[in-house]
Amino acid sequence: MTTQTLERALDLMRILAASGTDGCRLVDLQRASGLTKPTVHRILDTLKIQGVVEQQEDTRRYRLGQELAVLGWSANRTVYDLKELAAEEMCAVASRTGDTSFLALRSGTEAVCIDRQTGDYPVKAFTVDVGTRRPLGIGATGVALLAALDPAEADAAMDAIRPQLPRYPNASLRQIREAVASARRHGYAVSEGLMLKEVRGVAVVIRDGRERAIAAIGIAAISDRVSNRRLPEIVRLLRTHANHIEQRIATAESRATGNPVRHYRAGTTIAARTRRSA
After folding, report:
1. How many Cβ atoms are within 10 Å of 261's Cβ, its own excluded?
2. Which of 131, 258, 271, 276 is deepest in the core (most CB within 10 A)?
3. Region for 266 from its dihedrals, namely left if φ exceeds 0, alpha if ψ lies in -120 to 50, beta otherwise
């Protein structure tokens, strides 16, 4: 398999990942990828043989296969399972705010929701389902992850997501750029209806031991619930729980590598520490 074919195969897998459980027709994959029908068909046949793509017998639609899940499961456990490490903190954020908490993992120019927990406030803001992939910059977690990239990488990411933005009518490239600039100034991201109108989200990044922004934790609620007066309290809470997750990541990485664990004051994220030392 050539490098070009490998890149095309990965692009097709990402398209399938974004399609959810319904999967995609061959013509949908061809249109979304810009490849010819024979090329798409040939790559899919190879992926089917390897078990990372499967085709439903009744609808003939393609979707990601079980082997990909097995590979992901194995990869997670080589060092740590982020969803597992963050589970307690996710529940705590939802419980203490009363709102919906989200955990998103960065995957290239996309953010993947890997966990969602609900609080006890009766009006819920379910802006995204677990397993959903969205372009960086859509929603508070996506803005936080995009803002954590260096400027050149962030600009390249925004160029890459531009063709997908028509699917998100509430989010223009200008609005995303403004949200990213604000996140860099303040150290946390706010989404003002970028996903759904009348919904406001707040998020902070989670960094690994090498200080790479690998994920983001945030909340979403109806706009009245995330007033400017309440915002500092939410940010402090998110930073505290992000710090707890980072400490668990550091402990897991330490066990895998044998290096000592660095400890930081609770409530201060690695992002904030980096800004102060810059």
Report:
1. 13
2. 271
3. beta
Whose CA is closest to 119, among 249, 234, 12? Answer: 234
272: left (phi over 0), alpha (psi -120 to 50) or beta: alpha
- Strands (E) in 95-244, as ranges, are 100-107, 110-117, 133-135, 189-192, 199-207, 213-222
Orientation of helix 173-186 relative to helix 151-161, angle to 10°: 150
Which contiguous run of DSSP H or E holds residue 53? strand 53-55
Start-to-end CA span in the chain (Å): 44
Top mean pLDDT of 71-80, 164-173, 209-218 is at 209-218
For the ranges 83-92, 180-189, 226-235, 261-270, which has the lowest average pLDDT? 261-270
Average per-residue pLDDT for the chain: 84
* Secondary structure (3-state) at 93: helix
DSSP string, 168-200: -TT--HHHHHHHHHHHHHHSSEEEESSSSTTEE
By three-state DSSP, how is residue 263 classified? coil
